[in-house]
Amino acid sequence: MRKNNAFRRAAALMAALSITVSLAAPAFADTYYIDYGDITITKNEDGSQTIEQGGEKWTDKAGEETVITTSNTVIATQESDLEGPAAEDSDFGPVVEDNYQPAQPEDAEKPEGADQPEGADQPEDADQPEDANQPEGADQPEDADQPEGADQQAQPQQAAPAAAPAASTPVNKKENGFWGNTITVINNFANTVLNLTLKDVKIDVSHTGTENYINPEAGKAALSVQGDGNVEIELDGKNELKSGHFRAGLEKIISAGTLTLKDDNQKAGSLTATGGSYSAGIGGSYWGSGENITINGGTVTATGSYYGAGIGGGWKGSGSNVTVSGAAQVTAIAGKPDWGGAGATIGSGGSKTPDGPVDGKEIQADISHLTTGYIHHIIYDPALVSEDNPLGIVREWWEPERPQPNPGAPAEESNEVDLGTPGLHVETLEGDPLPFNAQQQGRTLRVTTDTLAARLHGTRQALEALQEQGVEQIQFVTTLKTTTLSVAELLAEGGSWFALEHDGLVSRQLSAAQAESLKCWMH
CA-CA distances (angstroms) from residue 441 to 373, 395, 491? Predict the structure, then answer.
């Protein structure tokens, strides 16, 4: 739900003045808390969406936004409305400088290896019979016998936030802000879209299910997407999903519908999805395929567990029709091998034949509409861990190919973009030249340097030359930070110089006057 400024200020004032306001009910009609139990969202024929939690039902009308968050996030949001730009035209709140900017969240953390199940329960016999027991509730191929309820998680049985009394308390709370409750999204109407926003949602059900060859049991999926209709998930803030055994981190039951992850609100949206054993980070669970997956915004990290793809299929499952576009920044980490083959970063899951383990097949994602985004592919093998290779990386690559700096090249060959005019260059924050590479990719110029702290510095003539070459934006990439600048906006600021500084995770754009006054090797 989008609130106007007056409403936001009123809500903030109420939160600040009263600590007795109950958080047992959603703050707004279409905001629901994962704290209070499992949530199921179902698309209806009339375009509305039914939300179920703890035996209670609510309906969001067609066109309304359905938001899932936590009560702690709501408190923080209301309190923050007393500060910053929201207070500029009100009679309360602190004085705010004109250049006020909200604090940026830290980059999404990589899933730790500890979250992935150990291979201790793997069968000693290398060959798995085709008729071996399947985990209850796991995805099966279309021609396999499905146990009852295999493709859908159990309906919630816990207290609902909207109807619960004020004394109600959250359920399944875990450490570090995680919750042991799940989300199920169902859209059975083809060519329609179910819209959902995740706002700072952290779910960990990685302990559920059992990885046992004799009597396996599927765990819970942190978020399961089902049905032939389309589902679009807006990412606001930092979201993390960790699923149980035999379930994908963000599970997409195979269907004709498309799952889209986006960050249209541009609220530093991110998602980290970690699959359970035999499953993908995003896509298919055990024996499940992952297809029709689009990521067009936000920072997304997808980690497959043993044998699962980062994005795509679980054990013996295929992966197809994956698209990464716009400014999406995607890291796809293949599931590790053991007695079976490794999963692909994007593609199919690993498997095993009588001849031995078979790694999952990589597929080419559609990146034809990628602008400033990228895909970072990583394949690990624990057997290769050593002092020289502490992570056990088998292979690592980027799409588009990431330019690498050449520190050994002379400064006059590596430190300036040749535009036929005084060009762009990279320097230390003290003004000394640094080696870098620059590469035009479509309408984007990527300038990369392998250092933590650096300054991108250039002239108005350089910007005009880039614009003539069809460059619309400049992407500055250092070791921990990536920032994108619009060429047109830089030109509109006036001045004869511009500058952008990175210092670790911090980015700062200098004013035209500051950029012109800097001491550097080109002056």
Answer: 11, 24, 21
Pairing outcome for strands 482-486 and 223-226: unpaired
First vs last C-alpha separation in the chain: 51
Following CA atoms 184, 189, 195, 199 in sequence, which dihedral angle do they give, to the nearest 10 degrees?
10
Q: Which two tokens stand for residue 522?
A: 């080109």
The structure's pTM equals 0.62
* Higher-scoring residue by pLDDT: 180, 388: 180
Report pLDDT for 434: 86
Confidence (pLDDT) at 458: 87
Flag whether pLDDT at 253 surpasses 70.
yes
Q: Which residues contact 501 (CB under 8 A, 6 or more apart)?
A: 429, 453, 454, 455, 456, 507, 508, 509, 510
| DSSP codes of every residue in 194-252 | EEEEEES-EEE-TT-SB--SSS-B----SEEEESSSEEEEEEESEEEEE--TT--SEEE
Residue-wise DSSP of 407-444: TTS-HHHHSS---SSS--EEE-TTS-B---EEEEETTE
Question: Distance between CA 496 and CA 506 in Å, rounded?
Answer: 25
Burial class (CB in 10 A: 0-12, 13-18, 19+), 63: exposed
Whether 152 has a pLDDT exceeding 50, the answer reads no
Helix (H, G, I), strand (E, B) or coil at 491: helix
Q: How far apart are CA 439 and CA 468, in angstroms?
A: 16
What secondary structure does DSSP assign to 362-387, as a single string?
B---B-TTBSS-EEEEEEE-GGG--S
What's the pLDDT band for 168 if we cut at 50, 70, 90?
A: low
| Type of residue numbered 81 | D
Buried b (16+ CB within 10 A) or exposed e, 19-49: eeeebbbbbbebbbbbbbbbbbbbbbeeeeb
Tokens encoding 364? 């080419």
- Measured between alpha carbons, how far is residue 225 from residues 178, 248, 290 in Å? 20, 11, 11
Predicted confidence (pLDDT) per residue in 175-210, tens digit: 889 999 999 999 999 999 999 999 999 999 999 998
CB 341 within 8 A of CB 359: yes
Partners of residue 52 on adjacent β-strands: 40, 57
